[in-house]
Design goal:
- Two copies of one chain form a homodimer.
- The first copy, chain A, folds into two domains: 48 residues, Homeodomain-like (Arc Repressor Mutant, subunit A, Orthogonal Bundle), CATH 1.10.10; 145 residues, Tetracycline Repressor, domain 2 (Orthogonal Bundle), CATH 1.10.357.
- Chain A has 198 residues and is mostly helical.
- In chain A, helix 1 packs across helix 4.
- Chain A contains nine helices and no strands.
- Chains A and B meet through helix 6, helix 7, helix 8 and helix 9 of A and helix 6, helix 7, helix 8 and helix 9 of B.
Chain lengths: 198, 198
């Protein structure tokens, strides 16, 4: 039973992704979602309390997937400097790719759920910071990084790259993957220079 | 005549600041604004096309004042490293202080004018970037900074600190001036380490 509950929930989030892409957040209704998955409207409320709850869960899932990718990069056998650069790029580009197909309506979604999302983002930030702190610690122990405060540095690295997350980009910028890739790459290098200095 | 036009416009923006603080953006009306300044409602429309136009002009004025401060810091006789650190802190803290008194309703304002503001922010960003590029160039010429690409670096420095601008902060964070000051200071140091390295 538990498995199938999770399947329906997951199917609803997949459908959310498609509907956001097709119609945007404003036009998305619980009825559409139920129809898209082939269940009754009431069943949607077994899993989610509201349309906003669905949108937030959809974003939660993107972040869970991102964390898996970051942990995978962190566990590689390459230098800490290289892994850090790849993790900084991934945290931007993975999110970028996750919302790319509904970039036109992203502003609409974000302005509607802004207050709840800001709260949520604090938690995402702390979870990501733990992954980055682990690598910074490893880099210091390996003698690759200067002896900085691990947690402060992890937070500073995330803060510094937050401005390139989709949330902070305009619709036009969301269309320019190569440009964003160039910017995060240059920024990651500047930050890592600061860590490897001295 | 031109002088008095500017005075009325300026008085309207001062009144906007007070009304944002007192009532928030949603409750602010053109009638209130006119009454606050002691002019007729029609006269407000001689200067501004809409409530949104007023809010955006109010933000424009904050940025103009900030640019004056940044140019002042850039022209000091201290080391480029020190001036750069002070400019990075100023770009965050000056904005922070400018909206501090209506931090409770800032989210409301920002979500209402988000699309126009995102467009506007591109221009602000370029104007600030020119000021920072000037200092980076000076630092390279003085042998203080590594020979980086001046414009790319100016952009990266702004990008890296954008996440601490009020626009990206939650209401709670807007109440924590000391915490924000600590964060921007740590971030500025990491970035400047990256520039002075090698």
């Amino acid at each position: 039973m538990k498995g199938s509950t999770r399947d329906v929930k997951s199917a609803l989030l997949d459908a959310t992704d498609r509907l956001l892409s097709r119609n945007g957040y404003r036009k998305m209704t619980i009825d559409d979602l139920a129809a898209e998955v082939g269940i009754g409207k009431g069943s949607v409320y077994l899993h989610f309390t509201s349309k906003e709850d669905i949108a937030l869960s959809h974003i939660d899932r993107i972040i869970e997937r991102l964390k898996t990718r970051l942990a995978e990069i962190a566990s590689r056998k390459t230098s800490c400097e290289r892994r850090l650069k790849e993790m900084l790029i991934e945290r931007v580009i993975f999110r970028f790719d996750s919302v790319q197909h509904y970039s036109q309506s992203l502003n609409d979604l974000l302005s509607k759920i802004r207050p709840s999302l800001l709260e949520r983002r604090k938690r995402y930030f702390e979870e990501e910071a733990r992954l980055f702190a682990g690598l910074v610690k490893e880099g210091i122990e390996a003698g690759e990084f200067a002896k900085v405060n691990v947690n402060d540095t992890a937070h500073a690295l995330l803060l510094a790259t937050n401005s390139l997350l989709p949330y902070s980009l305009s619709t036009q910028e969301l269309g320019e993957r190569r440009e964003i890739q160039k910017r995060i790459s240059a920024l990651a290098e500047l930050l890592i220079n600061g860590l490897t200095a001295r």
